[in-house]
Design brief:
mainly alpha; rod-shaped
Length: 88
């Protein structure tokens, strides 16, 4: 009976060792995958920052154009009003 118990104990220990080895391999794989994902994340964050900067620059240019158009329209309206006052 004791040999049978020892054999069962040895089998359980062998299974536990195999499980531990598999878990270590999985852990290594997951750590590698996590490192790659962190690199990808960093790269994407850099690209996002560049896109945001480009978008901000374009919006500023549009605002400048709109501001110039608004000033030109105001100048034109003021000029027309003055001409109307002179002719009136």
């Amino acid at each position: 009976m004791s040999n049978e118990l020892l054999q069962r104990l040895e089998d359980k220990i062998d299974n536990a060792i195999e499980t531990i080895e598999l878990l270590r391999l999985q852990t290594e794989e997951l750590e590698d995958k996590n490192a790659r994902l962190m690199q990808d994340y960093s790269s994407l964050k850099s690209k996002q920052a560049a896109w945001e900067q480009n978008l901000t620059n374009m919006l500023e240019k549009l605002d400048a154009i709109e501001s110039k158009d608004y000033k030109a329209k105001q100048y034109s309206e003021t000029t027309i009003e003055r001409e109307e006052e002179v002719t009136a």
